[in-house]
Design a protein that fits this description.
309 residues, alpha/beta, eight-stranded parallel beta barrel, 13 helices, 49% helix, globular, binds flavin-adenine dinucleotide
Length: 309
């Protein structure tokens, strides 16, 4: 892992920086590149605009590691409101939740009961996605996911290609016919749990992706989605589905709002499934700094905003 990435990931956990960052206009201007606004209505307006380009939206309310059951219940109620807002418009928009926002640190039972309320309110034809957080949460997150998908078959889980364990996790989930969003992984992890070298993460991603697409074709998986902006990897996945005679819409690429916009539109126009994760809310600091860590060149973008007045 590069020094800059490592420093930025450490900074993403720093409370002192988090409390100060929002005061600076140039930081807020930089954040605006990755989120349309802090309010749910900003996110919904962005999702509506994307639907016009055949790109579906996935909304996520920023926040993690809430402090008590009351806060978890507020987040749950917030998502229930979001689902009520989405439904009448007939939008394709789905939601993606972090289990630590729904009470996972407090108790798995509390978390499951909050998640269940969201699943009960979601349209049965849609997926509620569960984000994957740091590696210490993987067991607990998968345990909640297994319970959820048994009752709500369209529930989706995020898996991270940088973890050595992910191949075994994926294989063990096939019995449940899961929906999986594969990502590389955004947290600071030790070399005994995650591949330290980017080229190994990329190879792991492709190999897991290959397995997911074949499982989807063979009916062992409900939905295979790929959360990545890596155009070279996307091309390899496109070649794979062409070689193995799968339909273009078997490949779903999900990206983050504001990143690789041209590629998002190109994929949609060519008949692949294209989705964009739209984050909103005022707890954006750790999320934003993880975006900087993914591409330290984004720091220059922030510096330019510093001098933009
Ligand atoms: C829809 C979605 C959901 C996600 N959910 C999770 C999750 O639940 N848990 C988790 O750990 N991680 C999640 N992530 C983050 C993910 O793990 C990676 O950190 C992130 O996607 C960067 O990796 P990459 O696959 O784009 O490849 P990289 O190799 O990092 O990037 C490939 C290229 O994409 C572009 N790019 C990538 N990131 C940025 C950026 N921030 N700014 C500008 N350009 C960029 C650059 O051109 C870069 O060269 C999610 C990502 C997406 C897209």
């Amino acid at each position: 892992m590069s020094m800059t990435r490592s420093l930025l990931l450490a900074a993403s956990q720093n409370v002192w920086l988090r409390e100060r960052a929002a005061r600076y206009k140039f930081v807020r201007r930089s954040v605006a590149r990755f989120m349309p606004g802090e309010e749910i209505d900003d996110a919904l307006a962005a999702a509506k605009a994307l639907e016009g380009k055949k790109i579906s939206g996935v909304l996520t309310h920023l926040g993690e590691n809430i402090r008590d059951a009351r806060e978890a219940s507020e987040v749950t109620n917030h998502y229930l409101d979001v689902l009520r807002k989405i439904r009448p418009g007939g939008m394709q928009t789905e939601v993606s939740v972090k289990l630590t926002q729904l009470g996972l640190d407090q108790s798995a039972e509390l978390c499951f009961s909050n998640l269940k309320q969201i699943l009960e309110h979601e349209d049965a034809a849609k997926t509620v996605w569960i984000d994957m957080e740091a590696s210490s949460y993987v067991d607990a997150t998968l345990a909640v996911y297994r319970r959820a998908v048994e009752r709500f078959p369209r529930t989706g889980i995020c898996l991270q290609a940088y973890l050595y364990r992910t191949k075994d996790d994926l294989d063990s989930l096939f019995a449940l016919k899961p929906s999986v969003r594969l990502v590389k992984g955004a947290y600071k992890e030790a070399a005994d749990v995650a591949y330290p070298a980017k080229k190994d993460v990329d190879e792991s991603y492709f190999s897991l992706g290959q397995e997911m697409l074949r499982a989807q074709r063979d009916g062992r998986m409900l939905r295979a989605a790929f959360g990545t902006h890596d155009v070279a990897l996307i091309r390899r996945l496109q070649d794979l589905i062409a070689e193995e005679d799968m339909a273009k819409n078997a490949l779903e690429i999900q990206m983050l709002y504001g990143i690789q916009r041209v590629e998002q539109e190109r994929l949609a126009a060519e008949g692949y499934r294209s989705a964009v994760l739209i984050a909103y809310g005022n707890y954006w600091y750790p999320w934003f700094v993880r975006r900087l860590a993914e591409r330290p060149a984004n720091l220059w973008f922030m510096v330019r905003n510093l001098f933009a007045g």
